[in-house]
Design goal:
459 residues; alpha/beta; 41% helix; binds pyridoxal-5'-phosphate; 7-stranded mixed beta sheet; single chain; 11 strands; 4-stranded antiparallel beta sheet
Length: 459
């Protein structure tokens, strides 16, 4: 029957990969967070001519590990605070390895029933955890950018259908104009999504914001359908939430579709202590969030939700004679047809953490953010935001001084934070959203920040 010359399992290779990955993770706490310049310079060894013949896979893996591992940013560790992105829970890394071995193309239920089921079940859990309405339709996408795009495509479909226009069939040429409202602090991913959808990046009504970046309800415009209002749960600098309890009823009363970019902030709904921040957003029509941020699953994993599941399906589903249809076809709800089974890690994270474990992780990250803010303020540095969630924005003085401190912190390597400009002030941004961050990580990082700030703010 078989005349296999190459076994399907290369046991030594996979064990070697696991051993190398474990060693990498074990060494993370003891290494600098940003890669050393010398590690980066060694990457040129990868840049050879395309080999004519094959290379032993063990050698390929060795090249990846020996050159790549030291040149990574230690995002998987506990002291990377540079972007609001989080790490990857151990159970999700393990689930990811298993799912990679399964290699399931999770577009169609009949072809990949196991992963389609995991995805369906995890979506049900998420809808419950995030307080979204029963019956909400959802899809797993690459990240919040595509989640915003996907949910806004459903919005575009629904508001134009209401106006008697089938946008999927006829496009936007000759369509009734759609009013799109965003806050002045909308994330660039929302703006980009509007561009991709033909709704225009700057053809929007922009609502002014307050000092925390929240939409000002007094400046909210009068609306008439067709209209889409984009709210934000969690500003990428301050962590602030738009005033949903005020704006959502008004916008919906005026016939608008309300969309929420909750890339990280929507997770607040999953913690009893933080849920007040997300109150009112559940009354919206669609939501975008990231699992690769605060749920701490590996890249890439975003989630798009639409209260009107049929609007999402009408926008995304494809039919072809060679494609079987099954129970819940995951691809009915996503721009992708073929894709990896992102829901496996989401299911594993939720199954391992439970409701209480997730809430504890979210609350611990927020407690750590408050500790950073207190420590920095006590040393005389100006915290520019109200620390309501996991975000701290701090100025060390004049823009050049703050820039010097940030460079110093990045060079020092104890932790890693990036820079931002918050309402015309140059500042350092601290985002705490990794499961791996411990009290010790926070104290060690704060100590490094204060030490470096003290030396670099001196003239
Ligand atoms: C991170 C983020 C995005 C973009 O998410 P990606 O996963 O990087 O595509 C959009 N909006 C907000 C508020 C974010 O924090």
């Amino acid at each position: 029957m078989t005349n296999r010359t190459v076994p399907i399992v290369n046991r030594d290779l996979l064990n070697d990969a696991a051993a190398r990955a474990v060693r990498y993770l074990e060494e993370l706490p003891g290494r600098r967070v940003g890669p050393a310049a010398e590690a980066l310079s060694r990457l040129s060894a990868w840049d050879t001519a395309l080999p004519e013949g094959p290379t032993d896979p063990a050698e390929v893996l060795r090249l990846l590990d020996e050159l790549g591992s030291p040149a990574t940013m230690a995002m998987a560790g506990g002291r990377f605070f540079g972007f609001v992105i989080g790490g990857a829970l151990p159970v999700t890394v393990a689930a990811n390895w298993l799912a990679a071995a399964w290699d399931q193309n999770t577009g169609l239920h009949t072809i990949t029933p196991a992963t389609a089921e995991l995805e369906r079940i995890a979506l049900g859990w998420l809808i419950n955890l995030l307080g979204l309405p029963l019956g909400t339709g959802a899809g797993y996408v690459t990240g919040a950018t595509v989640a915003n795009f996907t949910a806004l495509a459903a919005a575009r479909h629904a508001v134009l259908k209401q106006a008697g226009w089938d946008v999927e069939e006829h496009g936007l040429f000759g369509a009734p104009p759609v009013t799109v409202v965003v806050g002045a602090e909308a994330h660039p991913a929302v703006v980009k999504s509007l561009g991709l959808l033909g709704l225009g990046r700057s053809r929007v009504v922009t609502v002014p914001v307050d000092r925390q970046g929240r939409m000002r309800p007094d400046a909210f415009p009068r609306l008439a359908p067709p209209a889409i209002v984009c709210l934000q749960a969690g500003n990428v600098n301050t962590g602030a939430f738009d005033p949903a309890a005020d704006i959502v009823p008004r916008a919906k009363g005026a016939g608008a579709w309300v969309h929420v970019d909750g890339a990280f902030g929507l997770w607040a709904a999953a913690s009893p202590r933080l849920a007040h921040l997300a109150a009112g957003f559940e009354a919206a029509d669609s939501w975008a969030t990231d699992a690769h941020k605060w749920l701490n699953v590996p890249y890439d994993c975003g989630l798009a939700f639409s209260r009107d599941a049929e609007a999402l399906r009408a926008t995304m589903a494809v039919r072809a004679s060679y494609l079987p249809t099954g129970a819940r076809d995951p691809s009915d709800f996503t721009p992708e047809l073929s894709r990896r089974a992102r829901g496996v890690e989401v299911w594993a994270a939720l199954r391992a953490l439970g409701r209480a474990g997730l809430a504890e992780m979210l609350e611990r990250n927020c407690r750590h953010a408050r500790r950073f803010a207190e420590g920095l303020a006590a040393a005389g540095y100006e915290v520019l935001n109200e620390v309501v969630l996991n975000q701290v924005v701090v100025s060390f003085g004049a823009p050049e001084v703050t820039g010097r401190v940030i460079n110093g912190i990045q060079e020092d390597g104890t932790c890693w934070c990036g820079s931002t400009v918050w309402q015309d002030r140059t500042a350092m941004r601290i985002s705490v959203c990794s499961w791996a961050t411990t009290d010790d990580d926070v104290e060690m990082s704060l100590e490094a920040m204060l030490r470096i700030a003290a030396s670099r703010t001196r003239r």
